Amino acid sequence: MSVSPWMRTMKARALVRLWSVFGEPLWVVVNMGFPVLSSLALSLLYYSIGATNYIGFAVLGGVMVSFWGNVLWSMASQFNWDKQEGLFEIYLTSPASITAILIGMSVGGIVATVPSAGIVTAVGWALFHPAVDASWGGVALTFALTLASLYAMGMVLSSLYLTYGREAESFNEVLQEPVSMLSGLYFPALGSQSPFPFAIQAAASLIPLTIGMDALRKTLFYGNNIGQVWEDLLVLAVMAGVLLFISTFFLRLLETRGRKQGTISVRIR
Amino acid sequence: MTSVRPLLASAWMGIQHDIAWTNPVLSVALRAVAPFAAAMTVSIIYWFGSSNSAAGVFNPQYLAFVLIGSTLYAHVASYAWVPTQAIAEGKNLSVFPHIYITSRSTAFYVAGRALSAFVISTITSVAALVVAYYVLQSFFGVQIPVLVTGSSALLFGVALIANIPGALGLGYLLGAYSLYASKFEWSLPGYVSGLLMVFSGALFPTTTLPWPLSVGAYYLPFTQFIAAAREALLPGTSGSYAYPLALCVLGGLLLFAGSLLVYFAAEKKARKDGVIDRRLA
User: Which pTM does this prediction carry?
Assistant: First the structure.
């Protein structure tokens, strides 16, 4: 049975990412630094003020910041870097689907980030034994949908960054911390426990990570099952679909415009 | 003067590299966003943890402690890794070979880049601190007890300058690594920032750490820098201003001298081994 070119493209791009990480174990060390240390520091902050029942929030935040970092630096920026290396021109001239390349990149990125996220979990668990009251089915589904929508957002950013030159990295640096704050990676950003006014909470809800973190905390620490977080799950699923559509639309639009203007493969602007 | 010229030229190049890629005001404003958001995040964690825990009580004094500490570790982290970045990026873009074929050591170039980053980071960190101060007061409806007078600002500025040798020392140490390898350096900002979050007393007292880590963390020049700078803006938190400042300068100079020796040795060996312009390790 022959596999479709789309699937082969997706698999090939995912394998490149996997080889690049697992073929050189140093990359696991490279990726885990900030998530492990920031999670440890924020767990110690909760610990030092006697809020030990919330240490799990800091550990979960460390796990998810691994994926958020991967989305920013290995998804959003990737096409821009590929363009600088001359690889993007090869993608364009080949019959491979760009969407398949992006999805392959996402799948490979998720699998490649698992060791880093696992180390954050193991360190947090070993040092602090955070209290967990989990509905594991809900946790698994929420986690999967959060990653799907988060990486779909990465695909949108990746397509948008094609129009930028050196600014892309600066935009990434600008996005990383504010999104971590607004999405409530380490504390509740939505609801009555949020420090944010309603307008900021509403704006933050447009970020998939915000909805995902809220639902993950409910299922992992407050025992909510799928039925109790179905609205969050529905929003995440819709976000994933819409963002995937938007990224495909932008890619086509920018590719067409880039071909017409002759800027599609301009490396440094 | 022959040493000052390459230093100033490198610092000017650093300014051009870091903020001249767009409108300089916009560039500086964008650079202030990350430290502002980081300061907000840890301050909110403190507010959330202390307000919702049975054991904790929300204390505006401690909020100020966390706010100032978080801004300062971000400040150190943002310029201590610049030597590494300057070398790694210089090798990738073939700028670094042009530096090392000059008659001066690349140490001048590295120091100049770090000094320009210090200036930019000081502006962005102070801006982030001021904005976060007002936003947090509005969010939580409390008065954050930060002392801002002419003398406290002067003492704060002296503490920032006193930390330069230590941060530059750390930069040389990491830069020596970059002369040889070209992979790990991209994660160094995360490591430097993360280690400072844990060990510099920025977010919680170093006594929170288990022995002997608490003792080692206490004597880091960066811990003493944050203690002195915090004492300037929040009197009474460190007990003294002069003592931590003296420890910061002493520890910083020791680290600087040791790291410079390591850097010179690494540079000499890298030239000899022919790896100083190697892009991939």
Answer: 0.90
